[in-house]
Amino acid sequence: MFNPFVWLRIPTAEAHCDIPCGIYDPIAAKIAAQTVQKMVLRIQSLEPPGADADAEARHAYANTMSRYATVKEEHGEICKRELSILWADYAWPNMPAGFDLHGSFNQALKLAGRCKQTVDMAACEELVSAVDNIATAFWATKNVTYSDPNAAARYGT
What we know:
Four Helix Bundle (Hemerythrin (Met), subunit A); mainly alpha; about 65% helix; 6 helices
């Protein structure tokens, strides 16, 4: 049986969004940044097992720690990807006065990398703030005042 897709060898394309679709929102970067922050909080709060702990407790600790670190790494990368897309693909019309487009994104991307490399709550807080700064500028280009009223509830305790 003839399969034209095999014959044509049509490659799979993955992008957001090289068409462009025109749908952008920094919320995905914000949620990823908050996830990184939450994982750092959990890593810092995780109690290591004592010297007399049994193998099961040591394994449970190692498993939990590795899962927190993995999620932190994954969401740090998601944050970087979402910011890169917004930086590169959005046309940035009507820039707000005083907003340093390239400097702001460069700072946020470097912070996301630093958050992946370390367990540093201050860096996480800076990252969330940097993403909020970008979101404020983004929404200003659409004549919308940015707010994230669900940030605290989403982050939780």
